[in-house]
Amino acid sequence: MQFSVAIRKYLTALEVEKASSQHTILAYAKALEQFQAFLEESFGSEPSIADIKEADIRPFLGWLHDKGLAKRSLRMKLAAVRSFFRFFLRSGELEHNPASLLVSPKIDKKLPSFLQQKEADNLWDVFDLSSARGRRDRALCELLYGSGLRVSEALQLNLSSIDVRSRTVRVLGKRSKERVVPVTQETIASIDAYVEMRGQLSPSSEEPALFIGDRGKRLSNISAYRIVKRALGPITEAQRKSPHILRHSFATHLLDNGADLSAVSDMLGHSSLSTTQVYTHVSVERLKEAYKKAHPRSEKGTR
Q: Residues 6 or more apart from 8 whose CB is under 8 A from it?
């Protein structure tokens, strides 16, 4: 079967049999058209699908890379090619999938954004503590930064969730995994100050939520995002001003000050240390930057 005929047959199956989205169909069609162009360039003519070997597919990724495609795009193109050959393997048109053993390019992990220590210190001056909303907003940010909670975890908390005596909070994380996380004295003080004025937000007597919105119900994720974004606006130039930047700052600042990686991982609720290790890379990069600026034998200081 010629390659162009096979593409049409495969795309029809995606649309009719698998009911794939138009976005997927268009993306896979584009990828396979590019693959056909590459093969015609390599073979000198349009090949049949049975003629294509693994060694013919591998250079396709380099061909795309030379055209400036990012690794994420390369992964999608390879996924389309794999799916294409898998379809004809299952239909009996092919005896093996020549793309089955190809490894997708690894996507470089972006280092998380975080606040500089001075920025974190300046954050607490932006809140209007004369209002219930201002006290709520500060208490929320204190908890996200002081205990490294995900915003969804913070918003699930009830008034009874904070154990003031032990200065801990019991959190229900991903996959319903429960953990106990320390709470700073500053966070407890901020929560106490907020709770004193919580009634001004008109919650019902049965509303157990710690953080409530302007309508007296549990604060929503969207509202929490806006609160944090508004608070971070004046104090940092970080592009993303989301609640997660406070969690990233919690982990980064702990590791900068010598905290044990395993302990930080437990507090964050990570299932493995490898997830937490991205913050060690942040700390190392900061160390390198400080070295370059200050050490007389660094690249900058060498004459």
A: none
Contacts made by residues 218-223, CB under 8 angstroms, sequence distance 24+: 218/155, 219/136, 219/140, 219/155, 220/155, 221/151, 221/152, 221/155
Where in the chain are the domains? 3-91, 117-294
Residue 303 has pLDDT above 50, yes or no: no
| Tens-digit pLDDT profile for residues 188-223 | 999 999 999 999 999 999 999 999 998 899 999 999
Q: What is the pTM of this model?
A: 0.61
Name the phi and psi angles at 213, rounded to 5.
Answer: -90, -170
pLDDT of residue 101: 80
In the three-class reduction of DSSP (H, G, I as helix; E, B as strand; rest coil), residue 70 is classed as coil
Q: Which CATH class is domain 117-294?
A: mainly alpha
Q: Report the percentage of the chain scoring pLDDT > 70.
A: 89
Q: Are 49 and 1 in contact, with CB atoms under 8 Å apart?
A: yes
Q: Which residues contact 19 (CB under 8 A, 6 or more apart)?
A: none
Residue 285 confidence class, pLDDT cut points 50, 70, 90: low
Report how far residue 258's alpha carbon sits from residue 148's, in angstroms, rounded to the nearest whole number.
Answer: 16
Please provide the DSSP assignment of 164-218 as one string: TTTTEEEEE-GGG-EEEEE--HHHHHHHHHHHHHGGGG---TT--BSSB-TTSSB
Kindly give the interhelix angle for 132-147 and 185-197, rounded to the nearest 10 degrees: 160
> Do the Cβ atoms of 251 and 236 come closer than 8 Å?
no
The CATH code for residues 3-91 is 1.10.150.130
Which pLDDT does position 171 carry in this prediction? Answer: 93
Does residue 286 register a pLDDT over 70? no
User: Is the sign of the CA dihedral 171, 201, 232, 138 positive or negative?
Assistant: negative
Nearest to 219 by CA among 232, 207, 229: 207
Which residues are known to be catalytic?
Answer: 150, 174, 244, 247, 270, 279
Tokens representing 117?
Answer: 């220590």
pLDDT at 302: 43
Contact 201, 213 (CB under 8 A): yes
